[in-house]
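Dear colleague,

Following up on yesterday's call, I've attached the two folding results inline so they're easy to grep. Please treat them as preliminary; we haven't cross-checked anything against experimental data yet. The first protein's sequence and structure tokens come first.
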Amino acid sequence: MPLVDEGLGNSSYFVSLGDGRALVVDPSRDPKPYLDLARRLGLQVAFALETHLHADFISGSRELAAQGGSILAPTASQLATEYHGLADGEQLDVGGLTLEAIGTPGHTPEHLSYLLLEGSAPVALFSGGALLHGGSARTDLISGEQTEPLARELYRSVRERLSGLPDSLPVFPTHGGGSFCSAGADGQRTTTLGQERHANPLFMAPNEDAFARMFLKGLGTYPPYFLRLRDVNRRGAPLYGTRLRDLRSLPIEDFRRHSAMGATLIDARPLTEFAAGHIQGSLSIALRPAFVSWLGWLVPENRALLFVLSPDQDREDLVRQCLKIGYENLVGELEGGMASWRSAGLPESTIELRGADDDLLGTPLDVRQASEWALDHIPGATHVELGSLTRAAATLPPGPLTIYCRHGDRSMTAASLLDAAGRRNLAVLDGGFEAWASRHRSVAVG
């Protein structure tokens, strides 16, 4: 049974072993969803299985182990915590089923895929980042020097080590569409080996050289926190158990004091509310499934964080998202939100929203990923990915800007960054490029 994290584009898998126990593949940090599911099914989570050291989220294996499970992971991952190490070709009995480790290095050097067998019959392949629907996971998270060698190793390991398995075998990847770890994957979460043999570049490329050229050309940018979470997962993050911490409510005086001490202010309200009025210098990252990716991309680790939220927003979701990539220093939220700020007569800033039928303000600025820009964009637009905007701000055209992304949330984040840096005459295209294209307004291609 898959448990999908839509924000990070990842899936973990809950597997009933048939003897009253269960196994969870690549669990996220919060153990509660797995434990709740086990409780509903009358099972005990006995094993937490890791395919590799994750760079895009903190593993929940140690949390599940603290609740009575055992960690299974590649021996080469060298976890600092107690675990059962597995290497290529090793088999392990898990409640009457057999788990076989298959060495599939590439996405990471220690990467293992796992074949689940009932007797001698293969019933499932948990492929981690080695084989995704329509692609595979990136190989540039270790070092620049290893990116091409790992891509070549990925090609060889998948083609050679999976060659004897049947086309009908279900494949359950960890990464998928929407994950910055994936390269070429689309929104389909699971697949079969036969589907991939007939469509995946790993199998369709005529040779290793051709695959390496194509694969490396398709690697986009990724959040900087990817460079530290492998080490966090190796040594282990702090344990929280099944109860997440509460987000403290701070009176306005305490909130302002922490802000003056250098805490970063995150406004997680919807973009329309931020546009209508916000605290000068705050960073707009609307609370949605992708919240955590942009928090990790734009805010340095270990920074003290303050939040502004709307009354009906889910505080537990915000805390869970922060913790799953290791943002632990959550100081609290403004008590009463912007209403209390306004009641105190404190100053606020606004950002103009323009509809797709309105005239643009000055130069269009496209802050989508390069792959999105390459498909189509507004004619005359300047392109800078949101993750690079702070560094590139000085190179932007002078004068007014209308900022856009796909829907609008990323463009409001971009506007808040520029506004905090002192840039004025900013507008955001409400509804983003999709609204623009839906009105049949002109677009440029390529």
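Below is the second protein, in the same order (sequence, then structure):
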Amino acid sequence: MNSTKKPQLHEDWIDPYAFRIVKNLQDSGFETYLVGGCVRDLLVGIHPKDFDIATSALPNQVRKKISNAYVIGRRFKLVLAKRGDHQYEIATFRRNITTDELASVNEEDSVDGDNYFGTCEEDAKRRDFTANAVFYDPVKDKLHDYVGGIEDINNRVLRMIGDPKERLIEDPIRILRAVRLSHKLHFSIESSMRAAIAECSGELKKSVLPRRREEWLKFLRLNEPHLAFMELFDLHILEQILPGLHSVFMDPNKMETFEIHLARIPVSGINMQDPTELLAGFMFAFMKAQYGEEIWSNEAVFDDPKLAYFMREELGVFKQEAIAIMSSIQLMPSLKKIDYYSRKGERRQMAFVTNEGFDLAVKLSYLDYSLSATEHQFWFQQIEKFGSLKS
């Protein structure tokens, strides 16, 4: 089904670089549209952060027509075009491989399994949710919808394309994406997909940790991440892949402590785009819930192998990130010792303030209410005094 309905937003919200890429490929004779999350967000009134492009042009044809573009991937070839600090993904329309085609693929050619190119309609039907499968032509100002995505967006329903159980088993990460997107967009999850999520939650154990880590970072960037984690708990998902956090949610007092601290991350000064800082906020909220509000001892907390396992094997925190997080948390008690700090010479004061973990320690202390307004103001003044000297 095609629709001429246009996004309900001002044209200024369409990224000019993305527009030019689409127009360039269209002028070269290729069917080309914006697609996915950017179109969905435009339709619900969210300013898109990324603009993905789908086209009938093959990857090498795109590379020849678009400047500063290069082909990436073996199993799933697409083109990245760089424009300043931004990059744009340009993917060729794809279709699902048939059973006969799958049987004829040689083992050495298996990397081509996701490179069966097709039509716009075929590409739409292989995507995950209907809301993510609407194509927008910004040049002609038209939408193309083959799966009922516009209706679902208008009704604020997140619906799987195809059989929900099959699609979730095919890629279990879709379980996390469904929950996250429902909270980001304030959509309800369609009933058959919700039932499939509950039934297939154990499939998430088969997913790779790096992909789960990326989802956790996106969860933490939601406006109310604690509500999304609560839904994961209700759907029995936490016990499958975040059993450490599941144990926190099993205790109402611990759960409340976790939620209070997690909710303060956006106002603490933590850089929401920095994975280390974002994971530090999460870990601090978790540790406050798990170990209590009192000052922790190294033996009970920082040397706890269960905590290390949770960070590394469940959350996917990298080794250097873990070191930075723990160093900042251990630095926090020193922020209360302003009199001791003030008696130091200027060189030692500068060394303390320019310590790699200092800024994050100040942010976490705001998360925790562990410093008074006067104490916070003092350290902000010290940051202003010495910050410009930081290497």
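For the second protein, one point worth flagging: The first strand starts at residue 2 and ends at 3.

Best wishes,
A.L.
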